[in-house]
């Protein structure tokens, strides 16, 4: 679906360039270089702060959230963690994506910031951090035997503490989206908006197949507590009308798959009736950021959305 999704990629890149730089990798060498020149000419013409850095690199798919580097802050500065990637439990080809971070580091785009390999299968979309030591995740994903078969819950928690500084892990035992290949990634279900605030997907239709699981997930979230013992502030997100791919399979459309960038939030919308309400709610959640809706209907037909195809890199790491 490259013809359909490339304009979405360009819209996302242009939205990012209004606020910060963007790194784009693609195995089609000539095309990615053309796009980089086009984006930078557009950014310069509009006097924008961001610039596009492009790197030709072999890849299996587009989901940078799950195979891209996860950056941590250490006493010595930023370090990029290269977790193992096996395409959500060997569901698809993954060898090129698993090698992509090494390829990018070898191209010099991260300057002298070290790339550290981690012997753990972990996708970026499977974890949410509050930035203060709490990780939110799902047992359906992190404990599936197709990722780290020798590791139980306690071992996974120890690994998250060792590599990501997790002081505690909040496990959701319920919640899923039909058409999701990831085994219930948290970034499609519930997201931190602030250390004490979580937004989450809810289904109001009792006849929908998602109703029971998402109701149970909401009840779990209500039981979670912040570090200080207080309950989290919870905001329910709208439930978009059901969407289906060309084979008639339901796709996992969700407004939880947003991307926070400098001074803005990029929000996936799907050309359905609930889009306007989603923009309104997100504007209330992030009053100090511009909410930028982006039509991600072509992306969701590939069973992923906006957050799934992006991975944030802290300022100063990317060599521009």
UniProtKB/TrEMBL annotation:
Q: Which UniProt keywords apply?
A: Hydrolase
Magnesium listed as a keyword? no
> What domain of life is recorded for the organism?
Bacteria
An example of a GO molecular function for this protein is: protein-arginine deiminase activity
Which InterPro entries did the record assign? Answer: Peptidyl-Arg-deiminase_porph
Protein's GO biological process? putrescine biosynthetic process
Protein name as it appears in the record? Agmatine deiminase
